[in-house]
Give the backbone structure.
Amino acid sequence: MTKVNIIAHTYACELPETIQNQIFQECKETFKSLAFPVDIEEQLETVKCCKMCDLEDTINVQKYYTK
C-alpha cells in the first residue's frame, strides 16, 4: 500500500478512493443541512476539484492531513 502525504494543497481528486468517499459524504451531509437549497451533486463535483484547504469552511479537513 502506498502512503499518501495529505497536506492543505492536496487536491481531493488525488486522494485514495476511501478517503475521497469519506470527504464526499461529510460534504454531502453539510450541504443537506444548509438553510438554503443547493444542488448537492453539482457541489460534490466541485469538491472533487478542490484543494483540501478550500474545503476547510465546509468540513473538518485537519483530521485527514498527514502528521
